[in-house]
Amino acid sequence: MTALSPLSVTLLVAVTVGLAAAILAWRERPEPGATWLAVLLAGQVWWATFLVFELEATTLPAKALWYDVQWVGVVAVPVGWLFFALAYTGYDRYVTPFSVALVSVLPAATVAVAAAGDPGNLLAADRVVRETAVGTFLDVVPGPLYYVIAGYTYLLGAVGSIPLIQLIRDDARPFRGQSAALLVGTAAPWAGSVAYISGAIPIPGLDPTPLVFGVSGVAYLLALSRFRLLTLAPAPRRRARQLVFEQLHDPVFVVGTEGLLVDLNESAAETFGVDRREAIGQPASAVVPKYDAVRELDESGDDKPRAIRVVGRDGQRPYEATIRDVVDDHDRTTARVITFHDVGAYLGQQQRLNVLNRVFRHDVRTETNLIQGYAEQLRSDPTDERALSIIEESAERMLELSERTRSAGELFDPTEESESAPLTAAVDAAVAEARAVAPDARVEVGRVAAVPVPVVLEVVLGNLCTNAVGHNEADAPWMRIDTAVADGWVEVTVADDGPGIDPAEYDVLDRGTETPLRHGSGIGLWIVKWGVDHLGGRISFDEREPSGTVVTVCVPVDRSETPVADSDGEPPDPPLGDSAQTDEAGSLGPPPNAGR
Amino acid sequence: MANEPTRPSAPDGTTAQYRSHTTPPEVGRLRQIAAFAAGAPFTALVAAVEVAVVTVALGVPLSTAPVAVGLVAFAVYAADHVADAEGDASSTPLRARIALRYGDQLMVVAAMSYGLAVALAAGAGPAALALVLVPGTVWIGYATDWIPAAGDRLEPLGDRVGPLGEVSLPRLKDVFLLNSAAVALAWAVAVVAAPLAFAGVPVDSVGTHAVGLLFAYVSVRSFVDVEVPNVRDVAADAAQGVATLPVAYGVTGTRRVLFAVDAVAAGLLAATAATGVASPPALAALGVGLAVSVTVTALADRLDGAALGVAPDCSYLVAGAVLLAL
User: Fold this and answer.
1) Of the N and C termini of chain A, which has fewer Cβ atoms inside 10 Å?
2) How far apart are the C-alpha atoms of B204 and B239, rounded to whole Å?
3) What CATH number should be reported for the domain whose range is B16-325?
């Protein structure tokens, strides 16, 4: 065995570390970028190996052969680098068979030219063997294709470096270390290449690029073992962040500084029935529900969260809107992120807790006191029939209260599947309940459309009808039910000729909270309100002439039938005449008859 | 080659099989190192010595071949032990523990040693490079699942796989005799071709006959070295339905067959000597190694598991020592 030249030994060191790094990279597949890093390193090893053969060869044809073989490695390096950088930093959508094929056209053509014996001297205009102090080189005068592929290599190298340079400024230390090691590993051979092409190397024919592959091999090895290059790649971060935005349950809108919509997530599009492609670029006020109200809320700086009612896919729901500024590196606000958080379930629970607490502390206590008092009286006069009947009535009311409390609990059981029933069945059931309470009542039922409605509506109507005839002292109480359906909404009106509801009762419902001094009586109206809220609908109370009350309940037809905005972004026209729209109505289609 | 006892007995009389693997008993550092050394490093040493002996026997100039083949053997075995660490937990628990605990470090060392072997081969020329790249190419094929059923990569080849022995054949382990023969052939290719390729000596200049005879000799000797440890594993192999000589013919029958094969090896050695090309001291050394092998075969059922794992390969170490002495 003849002794190797010092240059060959240097190259073999590069082969050793390069191949070791390539094996370790290959072993990490399918981690993002592993295959392409292996390609890059294999290219370097190939180049260095056949340069050794070239250096050790003694004749011009032999040197020229090994020189041509090196091209496979030379062109593989930039392709491997580009796709490694893209895959590793999470831009894997640019790493497709098509893009790989496209990027590989010129490298493949170069290899083909070299394999064909360099026809027309495209790669090398001239080749001579040159004896120098450090060895005998094949001194190649570059041909036109040589400069083309060299420029192409620098281009791919630069493009691949961009995402990695971004990582250097990353907050996470491991990624900074990784990208620094990678850039060193890449910059070293480039420096060698630039020195060669610019003629800065005094030894003719010596391209130092493969010589510094040893440096880059060590850098890659360090990155792989010390900085866990491929096992801790930043690639999933981009997708994960995107996924969080897309899959977030809460609707999110991104509004640019000029008030134009920049982005919105899937939930926003679905919940508020927005066409994503059309919405982006539109003024936020035309797409984001209650945009002005949300902005006012934000500008007022009121820390206390306030719910905004918006009509969307699930009917009308209360949302808590938060606005966050998107700030760039120079502390400039570039956009604002508006998040809508549905607080309906939370508010409902809070109300139920509040009301049930009152029922227990006030209503049950009052009845118990009553029973206690009249029981005392019965003790002194066991023949007091009135005391007995009062006790019986009181006990009856407590039993009813207990029943209604139970039905309220069942109504909102989150584990229950929401079922639907025909509206006719719901009305029939409610009328039957009313007749059971007041057999003498005159009940009129208008035309009822056979649309599917959630079964919860049955409970709501049952409570309304029994209230209408139950609290009516007349001999033959009168009551009438009318229904109307339009644009996915069902409107049910229950009218009676009773004494009317104390305004204080529905004031409390409107406010949504009770206080020890201001509270409703019983639980029936609350069940109606919770039921309607639960369905994403609304309820209104009106006085009737000459006496009585008209209660109007408006709910979406069925969960599967979404009331959405028209294609022009306008809300659907209210189906019914009485549609005084208040500030509570959403921009995406108000329920008809917004009422009081 | 390179084995630990399958079920090392502990002072308390229990065996690894009956002790929890999740909380293994504390083992002395020395035993751990010994267990590790008996694995890939021992294989690498044997491979290197074998190549060195063959180099002398062929009379070709000493090259980096023994080092390169040793490095490749180390890389292949170390990587395999890391990959199969979980599966080896019952047969070679100590080595498996080291492989599990230091898997990443072992892989870095294995990759470096393969890289160095390739670099040495590149320095020796294209033929040597091509020879050394074979196991790497097979490994890439295996790792990318190009070859179906490659999961049985080394398993089917039994304990002994030469540096070029990662021949991926599905369920080769089930094919009687072919399993050992494939390993022996791969081993012989590496041991005989490497000295020529690294020294840049064409086969013709040494003599096709001598090279062929030596190749045949190393093949049959390697076959014996693969089959002898099977005597130890006869119960386990029979339970798994793996066909080996001891399973098919019993220990006594196996011994007879292996003696016959060793006799063939002796004949091949004599024929090689008759060509007059091979170096007499090397042939003498190989003869001593053959004698050691016959002794080991004779004692096959009396040696314990640990000794039987390494004893056949020690014949090459003895041959190397004799060669140095001569």
Assistant:
1) C
2) 48
3) 1.10.600
Amino acid code (one letter) for A545: E
Contact between B68 and B134 under an 8 Å Cβ cutoff? The reply is no
Compute the nearest-CA separation of A42 from chain B (Å).
11
8 A C-beta contact, residue A218 and residue A13: no
Measured CA to CA, the distance from residue B56 to residue B279 in angstroms comes to 7
Helix ranges restricted to H, A124-275: 144-168, 173-197, 213-225, 235-247, 266-271
Q: What are phi and psi of A332, to 5 degrees?
A: -95, 135
Q: Which one-letter DSSP state was computed for residue B304?
A: -
Name chain A contacts of B122, Cβ cutoff 8 Å: 12, 15, 49, 52-53
Q: Give the model's pLDDT for residue A470.
A: 81
Domains of chain B, by residue range, sit at: 16-325
pLDDT tens, B238-261?
Answer: 777 777 788 888 888 888 888 888
Between helix A6-27 and helix B126-143 the angle, nearest 10°, is 10
Closest residue in chain B to residue A55, using alpha carbons only: B123
Block means of pLDDT (10 residues each) for chain A, 596 residues, are 76 90 85 88 92 87 89 93 89 90 94 88 84 80 89 90 78 77 84 84 80 84 78 78 86 89 89 87 88 81 72 80 85 88 83 82 89 92 89 90 80 69 89 87 86 86 86 84 87 88 78 68 80 85 86 80 40 37 37 41
Say whether residue B111 is in contact with chain A using an 8 A CB cutoff.
yes
Report in angstroms the alpha-carbon separations of A123 from A58, A111, A157, A206. 22, 10, 21, 16
CB neighbours of A510 closer than 8 A, spacing ≥ 6? A596
What is the C-alpha separation between B14 and A581, in angstroms, rounded? 85
Best mean pLDDT range from A492-501, B89-98, B220-229: A492-501
Of B63, B114, B129, the CB nearest to A49: B129
Nearest residue to A339 via CA among A301, A300, A281, A297: A297
For the record, the structure tokens of A53 come out as: 């053969």
Residue B232 has pLDDT above 50, yes or no: yes
Q: For residue A21, which residues of chain B lie inside 8 Å, CB to CB? A: 111
* Inter-chain residue contact B118 with A15, CB threshold 8 Å: yes
DSSP, collapsed to helix, strand or coil, labels residue B12 as coil
User: A–B: how many Cβ contacts below 8 A?
Assistant: 67
Per the structure block, which two tokens stand in for B244?
A: 């080996």
Confidence at residue A156, expressed as pLDDT on a 0 to 100 scale: 92
Check CB contact under 8 Å for A27 and B129. Answer: no
Model pLDDT, residue B113: 92
The answer, yes or no, to whether the previous bond of A318 is cis (omega within 30 of 0) is no
Distance, CA of A473 to CA of A469 (rounded, Å)? 8
Residue B134: phi and psi, rounded to 5, are -60, -55
- From the CA of B111, how many Å to the nearest CA of chain A? 4
**Beta strand ranges found along chain B (DSSP E):** none
**Interface check A226 vs B, CB under 8 A:** no
Residue B202 contacts A, CB cutoff 8 Å: no
Q: In this predicted model, what pLDDT tens digit does every residue of B46-70 receive, in sequence order?
A: 889 888 888 888 888 888 889 999 9
Query: What is the band of B147 on the pLDDT scale with cuts at 50, 70, 90?
Result: very low
Radius of gyration of the CA atoms of chain A, in A: 40
Q: Which residue is it, tokens 């009917």? A: A315
Q: How many angstroms separate the CA atoms of A115 and A122, rounded?
A: 12
Q: Report the pLDDT averaged over residues B39-45.
A: 84
Determine contact: B114 vs chain A, CB below 8 A: yes
Best to test chain B binding among A12, A23, A65 (most B CBs inside 10 Å): A23
Taking alpha carbons only, the member of A302, A557, A359, A349 closest to residue A453 is A557
Give me the domains of chain A, ranges plus CATH numbers: 6-235 (1.20.1070.10), 239-345 (3.30.450.20), 346-556 (3.30.565.10)
